[in-house]
């Protein structure tokens, strides 16, 4: 009886591995992909990157700085069309978190829209007047 148990599969042990004619054999890459780790927390890595991303706090301007900016905007409005080059630094709020970034735009002002409170540059950049923190240019050095 013991002899029968040891040789139970002798009749099939040396047969060739069966291969399907309908389904092709799976590649080793596809077989290993079945057991690869998966992202249990989808979006977790993106959330961590977003948390780490740095933003600048918006500066609160003094009354003197605001008055100086208003004078410069008035001077720009008076000289529109003379192609005066200016550099305007303004704050762009971040869409996803508190803070934002300061951007400097160089070029000529096309118009100042008093109704929308914006400065429109010749390259079509639109700058909200409330976000402007600095204006530089040769026209202010005189």
Chain-wise SSE layout:
Blueprint: H1 2-6, H2 28-33, H3 44-52, H4 63-78, E1 85-93, E2 100-113, E3 118-121, E4 126-128, E5 132-136
Protein name: YolD-like protein
Question: How would you explain this protein's 3D organization?
Answer:
The chain is an alpha+beta fold. The chain has two domains: 51 residues, no CATH class; 78 residues, SH3 type barrels (Roll), CATH 2.30.30. It is built from four helices and five strands; from the N terminus they run ααααβββββ. A five-stranded antiparallel β-sheet has the order 4-3-2-1-5, with helices on one face. The mean pLDDT is 86.
Number of domains: 2
Number of helices: 4
Task: Give the name of the CATH architecture of the largest domain.
Answer: Roll
Q: What is the CATH class name of the largest domain?
A: Mainly Beta
**Low-pLDDT windows of residues:** none
| SSE sequence, one letter per element | HHHHEEEEE
Report the average pLDDT across residues. Answer: 86
**Over the alpha carbons, how many angstroms does the gyration radius reach?**
35 Å
Shape summary: rod-shaped
* SS elements, strand count: 5
Protein name: YolD-like protein
Organism: Anaerostipes amylophilus
Key attributes of the depicted protein:
single chain, 142 residues, alpha+beta, SH3 type barrels, five-stranded antiparallel β-sheet, 4 helices, 5 strands, 25% strand, rod-shaped
